[in-house]
Structures are given as C-alpha cells and as structure tokens.
C-alpha cells in the first residue's frame, strides 16, 4: 500500500509543496493528492490588480500538475479528523472523505472582519478571487468621481489604494489608517510612500479606526463619518476555523502550532505551511502571513516530510524574514529591509527599480509553481518503509 500524502490548499505554499514532493518522492510508494476549492492556481498577491480591472491569466491546476503524478481533487475542505486521519470534503461530486498517512495543511487565510458591524454585509475585499471579482464588478459600475475608501494601512491596504488610484484616476481614493501611514518604515521610505500618495491624490485619514461600515459610509471611533460608495476592508487576514475545530493545537490566531520542522506539535502526521502555520522564525517571533513565509514554511515542511519518510536526517531550512516589498501601482514600489527584530533598516529601495524587482518576484513565485516538473530528476527517492526496501535493508 502506498503512503498517502494529502495536501490541503494549492496556493503559494500548498501548490509548491505538492510539486516539490512529487518531484522528489517515488510514485512507486507514495500517492500525493491535492485538494483545492477552485480549479486554478490563484496568484493572491495580484488580486488587487484583478479587482481594479486588470486582466490576469489563471493557470488550471490540472494543467499545472500534469505529468507530476499528483492527483487533484477540486473540492472544499469542510473538516479534518486528525485522530482518524481523514479529511472531509465537498465538491461537485458531492461529499467525500479522504484518508491520509501524512497531511500538509496549507489552506491560507481570508479577510479578518474583527467583528466590526457592517463589514460582512457592505464591505468588499481583495483576499480571495471571488471577493476580488465581486469588487471588480462594483468598481466597473462606479462612475467618475465615485469614492472608494480603503480601510487599513498594512501592506495590502497600501497596495490596494495605490493600485486603484493609478488605474482609475477618475475615482476619489481615501485610506483610513488606525495609526500613521507607513509608521513602521524607515524615515526615507516613509517619505517616499507619502509622496506617492500625494502624487496619486489619495486622501489619508490617520488615527482613524473604523468601527462600523454602512452602505454609503464608514463610521470612525470618534464618530466621524467618511462617505464611501465602496468600502474595501484591508484590515488584516484571518485563518479558516477548520484547524481549530479539528482538535489540532492552534495559537490564539487559529494558526496551527508547529515545531521547527513545520510539524504539528499535537499531531505528528500533520504539517502546516503558509498563512495557516504558527511558525517561529529565526528571530524568535512568529513569521508574518506573507508569500515569503509561505515559501520558507513549505520548503521546511517538504524537506522534513521527505527526510522522515526516506529515513534521512531532517534538514533545517532558512526561516529568516528579510523585508517587505510593497507595490505602489505598476511603476513604483518600496523594498524595505528589516533587521532581526523586524525593525526597518535605514536603507530602502524605491521607485521604478523597486517596481521592476517586485514584478520579477511576482513572476518568479508564479513561475516556480506552474512549472512543478522543472528539474524533475529521473530517479526519485523511495520510502525507507516500503516493503521491498525493508528487505534490502535487512540484507545489507
Ligand atoms: C492583494 C494581496 C496582495 C498581497 N501582496 C503580498 C506581497 O506583496 N508580498 C507578500 O509576501 N504577501 C502578499 N500577500 C499575502 C500572500 O498572498 C499570502 O500570505 C499568501 O498567499 C499565503 O500563501 P498560502 O499558500 O498560505 O495561502 P493562499 O495563497 O491563500 O492559498 C490557499 C489555498 O487554499 C485554498 N483553500 C482555502 N480554503 C479552502 C477550503 N476550505 N477547501 C479547499 N481549498 C481551500 C484556496 O483556494 C487557495 O488555493 C498579498 C495578499 C493579498 C490578498
């Protein structure tokens, strides 16, 4: 019987991990199944571009995994039972249960509403393809002079406001920041950011926490009313509640608590990678939800899974966060390096060079996922526990 590896989620972490596992483990004794809610690989880092009307190409996962041996199941995960080692799914084929020997949980995250009244009913977001498409339709119908309020001064809020302002100069863009815009950046990078906002004509309300969203306005903590035809909620990401409900040990955030090898601390057959993993980086702090962290955590998880299955020493791969790379539309960006304590270094890269670099990073991340067979070795590693291998070892 083959060792069944089930990967939940085919985003930056899951899709890369599945391809990597398939490239390095022999199909003679492993079966790798990927479960994803949608049939395509969605480049989440470009969803604000999709929302503002830019055309993005989505590559089908069936096409991505063709020739790798990875089995694709397009279905929504509804539950995980780590005691029985099963996953409940629902899809076009109806409900089903998948059994696993090793599980890699990489379901990512979605928008965090923080319980703010009206957000679920009236606000839009760019955290998933369906919500970005809903926003795209709304923005396409918004005529000149329409007001778009972006709530949140984090990376996604900044990227969304600047992208929208650049692509639709006919709209009036407003950003509500709980603190100061770019407070965490180095002084020079902050100046660069503020100049970009001025150039793009974005109005910023600082020290303005939004406490309610209504159909045509948002209400701040001090009762100020900000008129908005469209409110885009960019106040952080939250993980899906599936992990917490399953009995896996989770952090307060709902992320799965993992050890240095991305293995669940409560269930050793389960690994987590990407936004849903509560992974401690080399600086002793939790890795931020980001594409870079999805890369580090999935590399570590796959290295550990392969080593444990093939009976070799588990390697440790890098978990060091280097910095933030923020697009400011298509022609400007900021690359801010951080130190070991995640404090911004004085050096930053800005302008067209940073924008070109960011564009290269986005293309590289997408390319590495949609080419899982690149560098596929002719011989892949056999499991240490495979029946025929046990005989070989006994004879040795
Ligand atoms: C607009 C935007 C811009 C961003 N820009 C940057 C950036 O510049 N740099 C950066 O580092 N990060 C950026 N991020 C964050 C980055 O996209 C995430 O941190 C990254 O996608 C996490 O990867 P992941 O694989 O954990 O999750 P995801 O990429 O979200 O993948 C999760 C996968 O799981 C699937 N899934 C979810 N729930 C279920 C379910 N119940 N059943 C089955 N399948 C399911 C989804 O369909 C998806 O394919 C941005 C995010 C957004 C929204």
Structure description:
Keywords: FAD, Flavoprotein, Oxidoreductase. InterPro entries: FAD/NAD-bd_sf, FAD/NAD-binding_dom, NADH-Q_oxidoreductase. Its cofactor is FAD. The chain has 396 residues and is an alpha/beta fold. It folds into two domains: 3-109 and 239-321 and 363-395, 3-Layer(bba) Sandwich (FAD/NAD(P)-binding domain); 112-233, FAD/NAD(P)-binding domain. Helices cover 30% and strands 26% of the residues. The protein has eleven helices and 23 strands. The strands form seven sheets. The chain has a seven-stranded mixed sheet with strand order 7-6-5-2-1-8-19. Strands 12-11-10-16 form a four-stranded parallel sheet, with helices on one face. The chain has a three-stranded antiparallel sheet with strand order 13-14-15. Helix 1 (12-24) runs parallel beside helix 9 and helix 1 (12-24) packs across helix 10. The two termini are 23 Å apart. The model is unreliable at 390-396 (pLDDT under 50). Bound molecules: flavin-adenine dinucleotide.
């Amino acid at each position: 019987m083959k060792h069944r590896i089930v990967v939940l989620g085919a985003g930056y972490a899951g899709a890369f991990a599945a391809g990597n596992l398939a490239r390095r483990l022999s199909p003679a004794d492993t079966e790798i199944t990927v479960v994803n809610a949608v049939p395509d690989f969605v480049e989440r880092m470009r969803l604000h571009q999709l929302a503002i009307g830019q055309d993005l190409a989505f590559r089908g996962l069936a096409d991505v995994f063709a020739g790798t041996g990875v089995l694709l199941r397009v279905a929504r995960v509804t539950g995980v039972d780590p005691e029985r080692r099963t996953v409940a799914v629902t899809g076009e084929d109806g409900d089903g249960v998948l059994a696993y020997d090793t599980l890699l949980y990489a379901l990512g995250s979605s928008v965090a509403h923080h319980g703010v009244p009206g957000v679920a009913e009236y606000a839009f977001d760019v955290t998933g393809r369906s919500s970005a498409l809903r926003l795209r339709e709304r923005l396409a119908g918004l005529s000149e002079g329409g007001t778009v309020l972006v709530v949140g001064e984090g990376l996604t809020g900044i990227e969304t406001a600047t992208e929208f302002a650049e692509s639709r100069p006919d709209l009036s863009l407003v950003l509500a920041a709980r603190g100061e815009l770019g407070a965490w950046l180095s002084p020079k990078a902050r100046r660069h950011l503020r100049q970009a906002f001025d150039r793009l004509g974005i109005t910023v309300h600082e020290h303005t926490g939004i406490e309610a969203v209504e159909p045509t306005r948002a209400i701040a903590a001090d009762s100020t009313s900000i008129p908005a035809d469209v409110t885009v909620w960019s106040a952080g990401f939250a993980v899906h509640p599936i992990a917490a409900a399953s009995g896996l040990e989770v952090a307060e955030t709902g992320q799965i608590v993992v050890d240095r090898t991305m293995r669940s601390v409560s269930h050793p057959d389960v690994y987590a990678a990407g936004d849903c993993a509560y992974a401690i980086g080399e600086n002793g702090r939790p890795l931020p939800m980001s594409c870079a962290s999805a890369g580090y955590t999935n590399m570590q998880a796959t290295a550990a899974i392969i080593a444990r299955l093939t009976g070799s020493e588990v390697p440790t791969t890098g978990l060091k966060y280097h910095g933030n790379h923020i697009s400011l539309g298509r022609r400007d960006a900021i690359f801010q390096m951080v130190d070991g304590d995640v404090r911004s270094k004085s050096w930053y890269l800005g302008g067209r060079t940073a924008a070109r670099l960011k564009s290269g990073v986005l293309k590289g991340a997408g390319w590495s996922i949609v080419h899982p067979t690149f560098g596929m070795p002719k011989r892949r590693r056999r499991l240490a526990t495979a029946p025929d291998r046990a005989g070989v070892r006994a004879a040795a």
